[in-house]
Every structure is written in C-alpha cells, then in structure tokens.
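Hi everyone, sorry if this is the wrong subforum. Our group has a chain we'd like a structural model of before ordering constructs, and none of us has done structure prediction before. Sequence below.
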Amino acid sequence: MEADTAKLREQACSVCAETWEDRVKVQTPHCKFGEDGICCKNCSMGPCRITPKAQRGICGADAHAIAGRNYLRTIAAGTSAHSDHAREILHVLHRSSADGNYRIRDEAKLIALAKEYGVTTEGRDIYDIAHEVAEVGLQEFGKSFGTQNFIKRATPERQKVWHDQDIEPRAIDREIATALHMTHMGNTADAEVLIRQGLRTSIANGWGGSMLGTEVTDILFGTPTVRNTEGNLGVLEKDMVNVVVHGHDPAFSEMVVTAAEVKELVDYAKSKGAKGINLVGLCCTANEIAMRHGVRMAGNFLQQENVILTGAVEMMCVDVQCIFPALSALSECFHTKFVTSSPIARIPGSLYIEFKPETAFDQAKDLIKMAIDNFQNRDPNKVFIPATKQTATVGYPCEQIIKHLDGVTNSHVDELGSYRPAIDAIKAGVLRGAVAIVGCNNPRVRPDYSHFEIMKELLQNDVLIVATGCAAQVATKAGLLDREAKYLCGAGLRRVCELVNIPPILHMGACVDISRMMLLATGIAKDWGVDTTQIPVVGCAPEWMSEKAVSIANYVVSTGLDVYLGIEPQVKGSTQMMELITQGTRKITGAGYIINKDPHELVKTILDGIEAKRAALGI
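Answer:
Right subforum, don't worry. Here is the predicted structure as tokens:
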C-alpha cells in the first residue's frame, strides 16, 4: 500500500503538483502556542500568548482560561458541523413526497420515531407523519424550554448523572451559542466551568444532532443492512467513467448513486468508448453509500488527493466536511472536474452547482453526463491505478447486530431482540469486551499505522471492534472487514465470528453514526442491568483530526465510556485542563481520556481498562 502511495507521489511530482506531504514539510515545526492551546485571539487587544514571562493575557486570562476557552470553541464548532448536517437532512424529510426525489424507505423507523415524539400515526398518510416528525426534530435546534428528547434513550442512571451534574443539553443551537458566549472576551475564565459546558454541548451533538441525522437518514434512505463490497484505490476502473463522491451528506450522494444507474446514461457512457459508469465513495460519504448500496470505497481522509493523482477520475463531486481546498488546484493538473455542491463548502477553482432537493435527481443526471463527456479528455500517459483492493462486509447498525444475535441465541422467544448473547459471551470471557474505534487519519503520525496496530492487537486479545468513519476504511484497506479475518483473532473472538457469521470488526457507518455506538453501549448496559460506565466497552480515536472529533470524544465521555487518544488535545499548555480532561471529567461523568502517542502502549492501557471493568463487575 505504501509502495502505491510512493508511486502516486512520483505522479504528483511529474505534473508539478503539491500534496499534503509537501505542505506538512513547510508547516513544520508547528506553532507551539497553538499546539498547547495557549494563544488567544478572541479580541483585538491581542493576540496574546502565554509564556514564562507573560503568564496572563492583556485582560488577565491565564493559560487555564485560554486553553479552556479554545477547547470549548472547538467542541462548539464540531457540534455545529454534525448538527447542521442533521438540520439539512430534516429539511429533506420535510420535503419528501411519494412522487418526489426523496421518499420514505424505512416506514417502520419513521413510525417508531413518531411515537417517541408523540406524533399521531393512526389513519394518517405516511408523508404527513414524516413532515410532522421533521418539524418536531427541527424544534430540537431552537426549543425555548426543556431538554433534548433523545437523552431519554440513555440508561436511567446516565440520565440522573446528566441531571445532577447540570449538563443536560437544552436546544442544540442554544448550547452552541452559550459556548461561544461563554468564551467571548470578558466572560468565563474558570476551566472547570468551560469543561462542563463542553460536555453539555457535546451531548447536544451525540444525543441530539448526530442521533437525529442518523435516524432521519435511515428513514429516508433505508436502515443499512449487511452488504459485501470492496475498498482501496484499486476500485477505480481504467476502462470506465470514474465518478467519486466525497464528503458527508447522503442527500447529495444518494441522488448521484441513483443517477449513475440510469440505463440511458450507462448506454451513453458506452457510446463514448467506456464500458460503463463506476461510481465510488471517499471518506464518510463512502461509508453511507457502501452500507446502503454496496458502492465501493476508494479510501479515507488522507487518500483524497491520491484518488485524483491516479489520473483516472473524470469527476469528483463533494458536499461538506473534510474536503481539502487543495483539490481544485490538483484537479487542474489532470482532466478531473472538481464539483462543489453546498453553500457550506465553497472552494475557489471548483465548478459550483448548488444541490437543491426539488431538482436533485435532474442535477445528479447532469453531473453524470458531464463526467461521461469528460472521459475522452483522459490522458492515458497519466493513468496509474494501484491494483490494491480488499473485500469487505459492511452495514452493521444496532438493528443488524441484534438480528445476527437473534439468529444464534437459544433463548426463549421473549428474549429475542436483546444483547443477552453478547453479554453472556463477555461474562464467560469468550469476549473480553468491545472497543469503538473512530476518527480520521492524521499526518502528525504515520497515517493509518496506529489504527491498524491497535486493531490487530485487540483482535488477538478477543476484543470485538466496532468502527465508523475513516477508521472503518482503514479496517477495509487492511482486509479486517472480511469474514476471513477471523483467523487473525484470538480463539474466543474467532469462535464468536464463526457462530454469528460476522467479521471481527463491525462497520457501523459514518462519523455521524457514532451515535449508533452510544445506543449500542446503552442497549448492552440496559440488558445487563448496569450503567454504561460499568460495561467493558470503551472508545478509541488513535489518529483523530477534526473539531468534530473533539465533540464526539466528549459525548462518548459524557455517556460514561473512557476514550483512548493517540493525538494530544491542544490544551497541554494548561496543567489544569490536562487534569480536567483526563481525571476531572471522571468526577462528573465517570469517564475521561487516556492519552498515549505510542499505539502499542495505548493498546496495553485499553486492555488494562477493559480488564478493570470486568473485575469491577466480578467477571
């Protein structure tokens, strides 16, 4: 795989293009003040930075206040990204109709959500129900009173923790606004208070925006089911029109996937000398369409430039989040058309076509036709498609995990639909526990290496892994989403994989779907009769990168699950903040961060943490 990357780097040099590797070199060393979180530019008296000689900013804020404010702003930004994603998909649900571009694919989930919201369903048209559910969902962003609806899904013990600690999230937008107000010049300078608001804001994401985004996406496009697919750059085809969708918004990618299957367009591609249309995904969009359609995945975050460097991509269409602005200049070195589609992610040099729900399918067909017309402009001398690709089994939301467990349990029928079989396996020691591995890859470390090493060692130690986002695609590239990867596992996990017919790593979706992991952990805890903080389940983000990841890590901690990090949060200039995120949050939620940049050392602490949970449960 690294040999292929080296070849693509040569390709970049041959066309005088720069890549993230080049930009890392000129950005190194990174700003020490920024790394430590002790630079403040929240007013124009500064910027101020903390040094041994200048231990307070002009207003008097110290390192703890500055690092705390910066950290809270990061959480607020991450929460806004996932929650705005949810808001957009709720508007799509509100526009859905029986004869429109967007229709209801999972009526049962819609009815269940309607009942949870108190929306009348009896004798009503399914789209009338959908529109009212969308309206109730949209109220979660700006409701004047009360708290988020979905926090009632948590264990009773967890709800009590949030209530007693005064971190129950109110309206999503209110928590984001409160976080920004608190960090405005002249407001909160107490690091612990800032951390508490960070926890509350993050819960508004994980148990609010993200959970809404996942629920409504399932309603519109279908709850994912188990599918076989392939991953890595080898999914590109030399003799086909290659179209790449990249980003995070399934409302956009679903239409492009559908358009690529239109017979008239496939025939048109053949008339232009191609054998057909090959649509593949990148980043979290890849996860979304892989688990609903089996579409192949070209790669994760740091492979986005490599995809264009193959010289074989006719079009890359992007929506929002994790998109390199560098892609527009890189595309100009080849024949690739780089299309942006959202007013949230405008990039200079791109072809901007704003995607609108009412015209979505026609726009998608126009894009596919444009890509086909571009096929003849491909330069064969610039084409290098690595042969590397791996088979993968994807699509394990909570519903599919329950279905698989039901298929092997000998329990009485009344116990079907529970996590009891998994709990029994953990109690018996066949499984030691489970780890949710999430997050991006990051050039601050050797990309993907930490993910792979940690995954490999956990599997050898009979720890089941659930994965989302770019971490799930690392598992794909390493062949760990293949059922045959069971031979890399310890005897206990291998037996579970054989019995349940699953790969040792379960693909749960995109990064917004980490909310599924919270429901999985909560379901296990409820069936066990304990709180989430007691079960031998933890989170791990070895190579996290974005502001979204900081918000995610905080809502996982808020749910009572320890989070193991391989990249240090940018607060280490404050001893108080470092103590708060590793130990202080344990007094509030029962969980915190464990940080180690060495993946082998980090996995040892994960295993120790799981065994400590087991011992506390007496198993």
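For your construct planning: The chain has three domains: 33-221, 227-382, 392-617. Residues 63-95 form the longest helix (33 residues).
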